[in-house]
Amino acid sequence: MAMASPHRILSRHHRIPFKFILTRSFSTSTSRPQNVPHLRTYDPHTSLSSLRVNPSRLLNTLHHTSQWGTGHRYGAHPTETGMSRLALSDSDKSARDWFVETTKALGCEVSVDEMGNIFAVRKGREGTEGKAATFVGSHLDTQPRGGRYDGVLGVVGGVEMLRVLEEGGAETGFPVGVVNWTNEEGARFPISMVSSGVWAGEIPLEKAHGLKEVGGGTATMRGELERIGYLGEMPASHEAMPMAAHFELHIEQGPILEKEERKIGIVKGVQAYRWFTVEVVGQEAHTGTTPFNARADPLLAASWMICLSNRAAASFDGALASTGILTLEPGSVNTIPGKVKFSLDIRAPTDKTLDMLEKHLRSDFDNVVADATRNGQEMSVTWQTDSVSSAVYFHDSCIKAVRDSATAVLGDENLAREMTSGAGHDSVYASRRCPTSMIFVPSRKGISHNPKEYTSPEDCAIGADVLMQSVLRFDRQRVATEG
Ligand SMILES: [Zn+2]
To answer: Which of 181, 384, 397, 415 has the fewest CB atoms within 10 Å, counting from its CB?
Structure first.
């Protein structure tokens, strides 16, 4: 992409009207003030306490980006809408353009890989050019009826870090960066975290590029990347864009922090999950002329299976099973359907528990089909595996950086707690290739993937402070060990 000079971008930014001013009005742009001495953050004698995020600017930026893909309105306040910014849609392109322009204006070198992942890298001290950066990463895409915070907070938290460093004339030991990962949600192209997966070398590029959008559309990931101008030339690979570490700030998306009145979750790992598409094929038949004992009703069978999956998961410690997509053919009031497909999402804290749950369900589903075919009707069930994510354990050095930062920012270690993430995140794949950890902030009522998803401005700022401090602490540690 041809980019304007940082100077021009900056003046363009000043002209962007701010619709959502929460507390007071000011620009979200930053330029390094004149005569600010270099603050060598990697020098162990330098205090990091002067580097704090600007809470209003952070929030204004978050709400500013919500103009692209504004979703369902649930309240009267200007910010009380959800988000509907599906990956590689026109609104996603606008949010990406904003990210590229903003980080370039902050002096970052921006590169885009062939999955459309965008990496913005800020230089470290002299002599570290070309060294891997310590990254902050998350995603700008949302669910079709999602909220303003999932993913977005992590990216704007990274941008705020760049602004604070630039404003404070801070020099880090090594480069630091922010990455926006493509299609994290898996809501439009049905593999979640697909682009960090390709970067990590765990999902083949061709498979990712060939993904078709859900809902029967014909658009592919590659086609959409091309259409919006984000099919980069750089290989999507940890070799082309290595990372020294990956830190991700994210809303908890669950009720634990709020319930315990804590501010920060120090994320030690992520539970295992598997996604399947289960297809049940029976026999189309007339609803009025076909007695029950002559039917092979795949919807009835699928309904039993969904109920059984719920019951089975409840019997395993910490396990979950859910169905979010159900389709049937042909879809007529007076025809028993012939084919039903449903999604099955199963999760557990360990791989071993998940293995047991899957085995249990496969046998349950076979039993349902066996029951249905007892009268001579034909029915079959097949499982297609769409996504597999093993239990993940994050890196001790990153977890320590988050823990120390949380204590420093909060002034009370009891306001933070260690936890395991219930949801998958790009940090899962990042952790396969570099030290990784995550920082959780409270979600109001634990609600997420919902327009009403909310995290207070105070908690967003605390999270962003812990994020920035974690990056700086890790960077300092790197200087101590790598020189
Ligand atoms: Zn997310």
So the answer is: 384
Task: Answer whether 0.85 is exceeded by the pTM.
Answer: no
Q: How confident is residue 18, by pLDDT bands cut at 50, 70 and 90?
A: very low
Distance, in Å, from the CA atom of 183 to the CA atom of 448, rounded to the nearest integer, reads 17
- Residue 3 neighbours by CB distance under 10 Å: 12
The predicted-structure confidence for 410-461, as pLDDT tens digits, reads as follows 999 999 999 989 888 999 999 999 999 999 999 999 999 999 999 999 999 9
339 CA from centroid of ligand 1 (Å): 33
- Residue 29 confidence (pLDDT): 56
Is residue 33 over pLDDT 60?
A: no
How many A from CA of 380 to the centre of ligand 1? 36
Please tell me the distance between residue 424's alpha carbon and the centre of ligand 1 in angstroms. 8
Rounded to the nearest angstrom, the distance between the alpha carbon of 263 and the centre of ligand 1 is: 18
Q: How remote is the CA of residue 463 from the centroid of ligand 1, in Å?
A: 15
Ligand 1 centre and the CA of 274: distance in Å?
Answer: 17
Of 359, 374, 389, at which residue does a domain stop?
A: 389
Residues whose Cβ atom is located within 5 A of ion ligand 1: 150-151
Assess whether 377 and 464 both reside in one domain: no
DSSP state of 99: H
- What pLDDT digit, counting tens, does each position of 316-354 carry? 988 999 999 999 999 999 999 999 999 999 999 889 999
Does residue 60 lie within any of the structural domains?
yes
SS3 breakdown of the chain: % helix, strand, coil, rounded to 5?
35, 20, 40
In a domain, 193, yes or no: yes
Q: What is the domain extent for residue 368?
A: 272-389
What's the chain's Rg over C-alpha atoms?
Answer: 24
Same domain, 52 and 105: yes
Contact 200, 206 (CB under 8 A): no
